[in-house]
Amino acid sequence: MKKLYSAICLIVFLLSVNFLLIKNDDNKMTIDDGNWFFLKTDDLQEGEHHLKHGEIFGKYVEGYNKYILSAIDEVQKTALDGGGYFIGIKAVPTESPIGYDLKLLGKKLISAPRTTSYCSGASYTVFVESLNLMYSCKNKTMPEENYEAMRMQEPDGSRREDNVKFWGKWNADGFGTQFALVQYSKIGKKISPQNARPGDFVNISWKSGLGHSVVFLGWNIDEKNDTNLVYFSSQPVTNGFGDVSVNVNRIKEVLFVRLSEPDGIFVNKFEENIDYKVKGDIIKFN
Hints:
Elements: H1 2-26, H2 53-56, H3 64-76, E1 102-104, E2 107-110, H4 119-135, H5 144-150, H6 165-170, H7 176-184, E3 188-191, E4 201-206, E5 211-221, E6 227-235, E7 240-247, E8 251-259, H8 264-267
Antiparallel strand pairs: 1-2, 3-8, 4-5, 4-8, 5-6, 6-7
Helix pairs in contact: 3-4
């Protein structure tokens, strides 16, 4: 009996050590080997709306990006059909970047005016939900000024304007995730398209002149031998939240950012002097 008890204790100990190793492995910046990352056809079988981002795309990465991919599922499950897409700054009620009441570690960032969303709201919410997954059990406290900077609306419920604080930088025209994560908060790093991995954030500048804020899932070569960029965001074609695969020939420039030091949101003094003239990258496959 004693031997059996000792064996059980040893198994529990080994499982605990293995769990800790896995969790420690997740608590670091995602690394890559410098080669282009292409998805397999089977990775895209779930369609536009599903809750398997952590399972399907998470198997290709380690580090913080795994949390980001799982966070996509947290966002998508609030609106399994996409939830609707809407932009209307002057609408009454005003547009809602995200369609549900979003909180960061229990503190509200927005009381959603609508149940709809748009692209930068979706990508920012994935970022916030990834922080909730990382820190929910770590008793972290955030300086009030940092928390206030991350709000998606003013305390009186009115719209937080572009360029104002964390969300305003993220939501600004151009390469918002770079403004917010690299320059403003200093918790992310710019990476090249060749180094991109599932769970990286990317701003797309279309040849049409418009832009898009998304979470990268991978590159893919389809049955027509066309190369596509696969991503999650909110857009009309998916009725809000959903996965999209788009031909790279439609893209003028991209700018990828990888979450590198999320602990900085608890300690960093945010930087207001932002260079909004950042250049994007042209996609050039070897």
